[in-house]
Amino acid sequence: MKMKRILLLGGTGDALRIARQLGPEHVYSLAGLGKVPDDLACTVRVGGFGGSEGMARYIVDEGIDLVIDATHPYAAQISANAAQASRAARVPYWALHRPAWQPQAGDDWRMVGDWDELTDALAPFRKPLFTLGREPLAHLYEIPPHQFWVVRCLEAHEDTARARILAARGPFTLEGERALFALQAFDVLVSKNSGGQATEAKLEVARERGLPVVMLRRPELPAAEREFENVADLLDALQVAD
């Protein structure tokens, strides 16, 4: 099996590692959030496809032979569209599913499934650090009177009377996270269970400081013809495919 043209769905550090190994005949697709790399040999495509039907048309029109889904574990809609589009276009669908973080002895993880459960879990706390991406920005004027939020995300945003927005991109070091937690005196961490090493240091610091973690459960993702837990195994499979 020789893959003449790959469509790589990315936006993560893992996806960028894969993209750096692809030649000009392949396509690296980004939603358009965050920094767009300008140093890749492959084609970089920015923007949506118009749902699964639009993606299926793109796959057929562009002669794509393989779709690789290396999007964020919480990009469930994109993954669902990719799986459906691949079936419709009759091309293989591979997925990179990095392992979720696991609580360690003594960790106080409070699992929630959606925003309502999350805000209920935060009710006893005064100063949470949100590391969910941009979603909390839509709720800055719903902050309870006893709380002050710190929201870390990619996009810059004006602070409000009850929230500070930190525009930052990982990876984050253990020393940097320790300094941030000490300066801001958070009493709870809010996180997605993204897995990987780029943002794991915050969990270590929460552990050191004895802070609870309100953890958003991972969404259910579609099955793929081949699933990989790390970039190295996926790249090895591509070498065999070639």
From TrEMBL:
Enzyme nomenclature, EC number: 1.3.1.54
Pathway in which the depicted protein is active: Cofactor biosynthesis; adenosylcobalamin biosynthesis
Enzyme type, top EC level: oxidoreductase
Domain of life: Bacteria
GO BP terms, alphabetized: cobalamin biosynthetic process
InterPro entries reported for this sequence: Precorrin-6x_reduct
UniProt keyword list: Cobalamin biosynthesis, Oxidoreductase
GO molecular function, one term: precorrin-6A reductase activity
A Pfam family that the UniProt record links to this protein: CbiJ
Xref: NCBIfam families: PRK08057.1-2, PRK08057.1-3
Protein name: Precorrin-6x reductase
Organism annotation: Paraburkholderia phytofirmans (strain DSM 17436 / LMG 22146 / PsJN)
